[in-house]
Amino acid sequence: MGSISVLLVGKVLPYLEQELDKRYNLFRGIDPSQRAAVLRDHAASIRAVVASSSGGPDAALIEALPKLEIVSSFSVGVDRIDLQKCKEKGVRVTNTPDVLTDEVADLTIGLILAVLRRICECDRYVRSGNWKKGDYKLTTKFSGKTLGILGLGRIGAAVAKRAEGFDCSICYYSRNEKPDSKYKYYPSVVELASNCDVLVVACPLTSETHHIINREVINALGPKGVLINIGRGKHVDEPELVSALLEGRLGGAGLDVFEKEPHVPEELFGLENVVLLPHVGSATVETRTAMADLVLDNLEAHFLGKPLLTPLV
Amino acid sequence: MAEEEKVELQQLKHENQDLPQVLVLGSPTCLQTLKQLYSHKFRFLIPNTSLDSLYPLTAPLSSISAVICSASFSITAPVLRLLPSLRLVVTTSAGTDHIDLNECGCRGIQVAGAGKLFSDEVADMAVGLLIDVMRRVSAADRFVRTICEAATWDFPLGYKISGKRIGIVGLGSIGMEVAKRLECFGCTILYHSKHKKSAVSYPFYNSVIDLAATSNALVLCCALNEETRHIVNREVMLALGKEGFIVNVGRGSLIDEKQLVKFLMDGEIGGAALDVFEDEPNVPKELLSMDNVVLTPHCAAFTSECIIKLCELVAGNIEASLSDKPLITQVKW
Questions:
Q1: What is the Cα–Cα distance from A163 to A167, expressed in whole angstroms?
Q2: Any idea where the D-isomer specific 2-hydroxyacid dehydrogenase catalytic domain is (chain A) (predicted)?
């Protein structure tokens, strides 16, 4: 398989890059100028693209690769990939569901606790020597609170399961009510936000869910409400979020994703009721390795004519 | 300071002498709320100097029958000798290592604690700290706030929590709440306690070293006493290993702190999340620049929600004592 040309368009675990290099004829096209050079010389030979949350093939790139057969994404979210174009062209698409579900759910609970109990702020308090001047102030209890989950898919359900251990009440909004679910369903995001203490965004990013967290939802969540975003930055109207936090219309936020990563609105840096993470939802050694193996196994299956392990298209 | 103190104690003679006096030591966090809610029931005496310097003012002290204290004030035998009429000590903490329980017992002084009031709060914090140190949450937050705009997000990977083996040291009320939460993460719960608990199905380890050897992380939830001082020592930390983590929401002296610092500096242990320290509020300066530690100022119990409940419990215990009824949360030893 060493002669099969593969184009890498997003940042991935070094182990994955090394393996791709070993097994295929790998071209790196993460950087735009790098990509342009590769396309100029090798567009006609590329049969696979490896994408990630930081970069995926849009319609233009897919058009530019006439021999493209498969896009394998090192992520569960595929908002960077033009799925419609892939369908039209008969290009297969795989992602990495399930292997990162637990990881993201763990971090979600960690984010909730970090915001409500001000763990990062407390850590800053100690490191700056302020503890010698007096105790830190009272924080907000998590146990027993009402958790609202936007998108009760794999990740949403895993978050709910963990929150139950804290005696939380769980409610959710989804495109369709899930008849088997024991949790309370709300038919709109605003109603969900009005009825929960902590709102977790756990749905895929599509044209319908773009800015699904808007001013109305944020106001409904309110001055004691907390927003946790472990989905995609574009789920949230970021300028609205920032102004709500600055004005006290929203109680707090835990954000692992942003609209224009790695850019983070600077106004958030001075706030003690926010926790800001550099998109690390799945960032453990164990999970990133499992994701990498899934990318490699999907590619291998495809080129050997076997069924794909985790196809989306 | 002494002037204010005299004024405060003198007020006692002229106002509401009917109200029972309660001496408050150690500036408990709930004091403001306590005064707001219960000043119509109790006369709170709050010294703003150390108790020793009150010695000349024996009249008010000799009639004190109830004391409220925080975890940071030691109720030692000498302190107890200054209070000859004392019948009740109410501590606002779950821990009682700061109280000479033997001396209280000899003197017939009852002791009441916070019981299980904080168990949820402390368990929540323990889980939050565990996730933080293993997934580098606080370090990542610092990273985002301080890296320059142009930099890429190259941040070191953390360690998975789900499915890991968590060794709980001390399976009391707090330990059980920690276990219940981590079970929902698919973790395997193991424990060490003074005695095996027959009603519990988690695997029991008589030796903390053996527990550490088979765990990915240790969560310390036990009381501090002579047997548990430095229960996490050099051997235990070596058994836990280079990818092992410790969370301490018990008392600082459960861990040999000097050894912990050394091991963290040498990479002999993966990381530590500490809410308590051997000499609070002093924290070993070597820890202040480490990214694989999380440091919080002994606040695992303190949420707004629990403060009112704590005040109710404190007041309830005092009222029970005054009416010769059983205490709500009597500490027995």
A1: 7
A2: 9-310
Which of B130, B305, B308, B311 to probe the A interface (max A CBs under 10 A)?
B305
Predicted pLDDT at B3? 42
pLDDT-based confidence at residue B61 (cuts at 50, 70, 90)? confident
**CA of B118: which chain A residue's CA is closest?**
A141
Contact assessment for residue A96 and residue A294, using Cβ atoms and an 8 Å cutoff:
yes
Contacts of A10 in chain B (CB under 8 A): none
Average pLDDT over residues A283-305: 95
Residue of B29, B122, B134, B157 best to disrupt the A interface, most CBs of A under 10 A: B157
Taking the Cβ of residue B4 and every Cβ of chain A, the question of whether any pair is shorter than 8 Å is answered with no
Across the interface, whether the CB atoms of A122 and B296 are under 8 A apart is answered: yes
**Does B291 reach chain A within 8 Å, measured CB to CB?**
no
User: pLDDT tens digit string along A115-167?
Assistant: 999 999 999 999 999 999 999 999 999 999 999 999 999 999 999 999 999 99
pLDDT at B6: 44
Identify the three-state secondary structure at position A112: helix
Do B247 and B126 contact (CB within 8 A), yes or no?
yes
A5-95+286-304 matches A100-276 in fold: yes
Task: Return the pLDDT at B52.
Answer: 54
> How do the domains of chain A map onto residue ranges?
5-95+286-304, 100-276
pLDDT at B185 > cutoff 70: yes
3-state DSSP assignment of residue A182: coil
Alpha-carbon distance of B43 to A144, in angstroms, equals 35
Domain A5-95+286-304: assigned CATH number = 3.40.50.720
Q: What is the pLDDT of residues B278-333, one digit of tens each?
A: 999 999 999 999 999 999 999 999 999 999 999 999 999 999 999 999 999 999 87
Q: How far apart are CA A286 and CA A12, in angstroms?
A: 14
Give the β-pairing of B271-274 and B293-295: parallel
Question: What CA–CA distances, in Å, run from A192 to A135, A146, A195, A220?
Answer: 36, 10, 5, 9
The answer to whether B321 and B327 have CB atoms below 8 angstroms apart is yes
ipTM of this model?
Answer: 0.89
For residue B148, the model assigns a pLDDT of 72
Backbone angles phi, psi at B286, to 5 degrees: -60, -30
| Strand-pair category, B66-69 with B43-45 | unpaired
Radius of gyration for chain A, computed over Cα atoms and rounded to the nearest angstrom = 21
Alpha carbon distance A113, A129 (integer Å): 23
**For domain A100-276, which architecture applies?**
3-Layer(aba) Sandwich (3.40)
In 3D space, the residue among B297, B291, B272, B296 whose CA is nearest the CA of residue B141 turns out to be B291
| DSSP codes, B128-146 | HHHHHHHHTHHHHHHHHHH
Report the alpha-carbon distance of residue B315 to residue B300 in Å, rounded: 22
